[in-house]
């Protein structure tokens, strides 16, 4: 058991560090070749912060542990909304200035409903996975168009400031990009090995480990960057991190996992975990939408999100203990 716990801890630490270097390297390379700050924030950062989930889930599916893959994806979505935005908005209420992010809020909710439709038969087939991946390609096309059209958006201005603070020479950026990607794979292997071992040792479903330990671990980069962004007065970056990550998780991460290893989904997982994710996504849409004069996640709403996460986690742990 000790070796599995050590693998998880070391794997998570290396995963977080390598993901950070990978994102910095990719962002600097993209900026060097003329990509706009808004596109970097929506595409490069969105992909980079979901890279841990993507690699962990792909490796889990390849090794015949799809439960960890699915738990990681949907558990990360729950963690991103309830824990990350909950903690961040308690520190600094998140006001949504960006028009692009306001458009992404309903899109994320609609995509979540579509993913539920794909899993309504309690099975993720390759056809379902391909549909999710095609939707992902479509969303990326829309994202690129919005990034080109709204170059002066509030999110773009915040990203421009952030990118200038992390500027690096091109050679060093390439080194961080490639080195970060290699270490992502290595650390993901360690994490999956430890997570599977813990699940087997405790006699619990691997999806429970995916929903808790793995999901929280792979979401730590988003937590750190969102809290820092909010404290620096960059709320759109904090929200953009979560929206981008959840879109990638719902479509790309689940799509890649399902195309590698189709699998059945337990009814309990569908109603409990996917249900919680859907309710939280709808709550985020209501809190951050422009039904009000300006979308804003207040401290009270942040407290509701964080309390929901605590209650969900306690319930999960109590079911494992039975």
Produce the secondary structure layout.
Elements: H1 2-32, H2 37-62, H3 66-91, E1 94-95, H4 99-119, E2 123-124, H5 126-149, H6 154-165, H7 170-202, H8 206-231, H9 235-260, E3 263-264, H10 267-288, E4 296-297, H11 299-321
Antiparallel strand pairs: 1-4, 2-3
Helix pairs in contact: 1-2, 1-7, 1-8, 2-3, 2-5, 2-6, 2-7, 2-8, 2-9, 3-8, 3-9, 3-10, 3-11, 4-5, 4-9, 4-10, 5-9, 7-8, 8-9
Structural overview:
This protein is an all-alpha fold and about 325 residues long. It has one domain: NCX, central ion-binding region (A middle domain of Talin 1), CATH 1.20.1420.30. It is built from 11 helices and 4 strands; from the N terminus they run H-H-H-E-H-E-H-H-H-H-H-E-H-E-H. Strands 1-4 form a two-stranded antiparallel ribbon. The chain has a two-stranded antiparallel sheet with strand order 2-3. Helix 3 (about 65-90) runs parallel beside helix 8. The mean pLDDT is about 80.
List keywords for this structure.
single chain; 322 residues; mainly alpha; A middle domain of Talin 1; two-stranded antiparallel sheet; 11 helices; 84% helix; 2% strand; globular
Structural class: mainly alpha
Residues in helix, % = over 70%
The appropriate CATH architecture is Up-down Bundle
Give the CATH superfamily.
NCX, central ion-binding region
Say how many strands there are. 4
Give start-end ranges of low-pLDDT stretches.
Answer: none
Q: What name does the CATH topology carry? A: A middle domain of Talin 1
Supply the number of helical segments: 11
Order of helices and strands: HHHEHEHHHHHEHEH
Which descriptor suits the 3D outline?
Answer: globular
Q: What is the highest CATH level, the class?
A: Mainly Alpha
Report mean pLDDT, rounded to a whole number.
Answer: 80
Largest sheet: 2 strands, antiparallel
N- to C-terminal separation? 20 Å
Kindly give the count of domains.
Answer: 1
Beta-strand level of the residues, as a percent range?
Answer: under 5%
Neighbour order of strands in the largest sheet: 1-4
């Amino acid at each position: 058991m000790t070796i599995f716990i050590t693998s998880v801890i070391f794997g998570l630490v290396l995963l977080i560090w390598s993901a950070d270097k990978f994102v910095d390297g990719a962002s600097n390379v993209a900026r060097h070749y003329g990509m706009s700050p808004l596109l970097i924030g929506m595409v490069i950062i969105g992909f980079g912060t979901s890279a841990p989930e993507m690699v962990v889930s792909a490796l889990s599916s390849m090794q015949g542990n799809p439960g960890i893959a699915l738990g990681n994806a949907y558990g990360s979505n729950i963690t991103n909304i309830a824990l990350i935005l909950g903690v961040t908005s308690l520190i600094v209420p998140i006001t949504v200035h960006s028009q692009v992010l306001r458009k992404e809020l309903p899109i994320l909710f609609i995509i979540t409903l579509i993913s539920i439709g794909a899993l309504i038969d309690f099975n993720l087939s390759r056809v379902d996975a391909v549909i999710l991946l095609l939707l992902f390609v479509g969303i990326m096309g829309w994202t690129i168009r919005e990034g080109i059209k709204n170059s002066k958006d509030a999110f773009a201005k915040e990203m421009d400031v952030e990118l200038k603070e992390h500027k690096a020479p091109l050679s060093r950026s390439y080194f961080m990009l490639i080195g970060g990607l290699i270490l992502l794979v290595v650390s993901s292997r360690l994490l999956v090995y430890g997570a599977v071992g813990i699940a087997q040792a405790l006699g619990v479903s691997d999806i429970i480990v995916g929903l808790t330990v793995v999901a929280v671990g792979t979401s730590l980069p988003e937590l750190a960057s969102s809290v820092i962004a909010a404290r620096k007065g960059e709320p759109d970056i904090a929200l953009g991190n979560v929206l981008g990550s959840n879109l990638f998780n719902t479509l790309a991460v689940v799509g890649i996992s399902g195309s590698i290893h189709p699998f059945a989904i337990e009814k309990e997982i569908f109603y409990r975990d996917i249900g919680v994710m859907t309710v939280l996504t709808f709550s985020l849409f209501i809190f951050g939408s422009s039904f009000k004069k300006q979308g804003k996640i207040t401290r009270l709403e942040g407290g509701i999100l964080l309390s929901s996460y605590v209650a969900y986690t306690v319930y999960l742990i109590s079911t494992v203990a039975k």
